[in-house]
Specification:
Oligomer: single chain
Shape: rod-shaped
Order of helices and strands: HHHHHHHH
Number of helices: 8
Distance between the termini: 40 Å
Number of strands: 0
Largest sheet: none
Amino acid sequence: MRPLIISAIAFALVLGAALLGMYFRKVVSADHLRDDVKDVVRLSTGLIGTIAALVLGLLIASAKSSYDARATQFKQITANVIFLYLLLEQYGPDAQNLRTMLRLGVPLMIERITNEGRSGTPAPYETTSEAQRFLARVEELKPNSESQRLVQARIINAIVQLTQSRLALFTQAHESIPAPFLAILIFWLAIIFASFGLFVRPVAVVVITFVVGAMSVSGALFLILEMDQPFAGIFQISSETLSHALAPLAN
């Protein structure tokens, strides 16, 4: 709900600024609307508009890049889980209990990743007791041959890679766009629309144009905030890939 609320607030402020500008056009004296005054206002708002457009473009590119990075990390976790299971299968019957533990642990990992992505406040990373027991069981394996010893080493290495991918995803789980940054950007947009309204008459076409413009900029903010929360909202990264990976593991 947070992206929707912020974008709605941005829409109200930007549109309100435009309407307020049209209101001030009626109450200010004609001396404040001379051509030289208009030129100064237009030059100033043109500079602000250029800065705001650059910032919006950079925010969209940054949010998309962050979204893609987290999606890639989630896919890497999926690949690591499947690879780890195959190694346990290769080890032999002695790792049957470990395969069962892995099947039971993956849904819990998915739930934790999703909850971290939806949480609005950062929290310390905590290793689950299930993960600690799993690693302890792997280390307690007693290879009966050189082949099993090599597989055990590869299993431990796969666990390390899975942990690294998991930690990389955790470090990016929380929102990265500071609230003051959004407030300044919305302020810039409100100033721009207020300057638009200051020099036009309040006719229906102008009001509709302002509504469409306010919807556009608030929609851009909505997209940025949604992509910044990849495990919640309309752009949610699907966990079906990792969940479906459990199907062949149920043997």
